[in-house]
Specification:
The chain has 206 residues and is an all-alpha fold. The protein has twelve helices and no strands. Helix 6 runs antiparallel to helix 7.
Length: 206
């Protein structure tokens, strides 16, 4: 599929088999089934969605899960499910919070809902929606912030591939609105993600 089997970062992803291999000995069988079901839902919802760099959107979702597992050592099923499904409420006309709660439980539904922006409103007032989103995360479970910063970190690693139309604005907003939440937390993993985001911004800005 890729030359020399070494894709560029933005074209890398975790297959379902790779996800299963990571969690099969760390989660009970029921949770393995739940995570794989979330993977399939994310793949279905984002099936025809491409990012600005032309890569399938679902690649991003799997890389966020990979950051949580490989870089932070987090294998909590609810956290991984929410990471895989973080954008399904924004991108599906049929998946609702009720559907998520029925299939994956109330905590997953809460995390995904917390991570969801009102895209229709954002078209009219992108800054206002993003600021309100950040403030909502400040008051939310730190699990939501772990997913949010892991997602931002993945996006920072993709900035050189033109994944964001306005990368400098994206960097500024991240530094002004999201990293202060991590800096104010006692959670060492949030600090680690914030540090990695700062390193990636330095690489991009030179």
């Amino acid at each position: 599929m890729f030359a020399n089997d070494q894709p560029s970062y933005n074209a890398s992803f975790l297959s379902l088999e790779e996800v299963e291999a990571r969690i099969v000995h760390r989660c009970d069988p029921l949770d393995v089934t739940r995570v794989t079901a979330a993977y399939e839902m994310a793949k279905s919802v984002h099936e025809h969605q491409l990012r600005n760099d032309g890569t399938p959107y679902v690649y991003h979702a799997t890389r966020v899960a990979r950051i949580l597992m490989d870089e932070l050592g987090l294998f909590d099923a609810d956290l991984l499910i929410a990471a895989l499904l973080q954008d399904v409420l924004e991108d599906s006309t049929t998946i609702t919070r009720t559907v998520l709660e029925y299939n994956f439980g109330s905590y997953v539904a809460y995390l995904v809902d917390t991570l969801t922006k009102d895209l229709a409103k954002a078209k009219q007032d992108p800054d206002g929606v993003d600021i309100a989103h950040a403030e909502g995360l400040r008051a939310a479970s730190e699990d939501a912030m772990l997913i949010k910063l892991a997602s931002r970190l993945d996006n920072f690693r993709c900035l050189s591939f033109n994944v964001k139309r306005n990368p400098l604005v994206y960097i500024r907003n991240t530094f002004e609105r999201y990293l202060p939440i991590a800096d104010a937390s006692a959670n060492a993993l949030l600090h680690r993600l914030a540090d990695e985001i700062r390193k990636e911004s330095n690489k991009f800005l030179g």
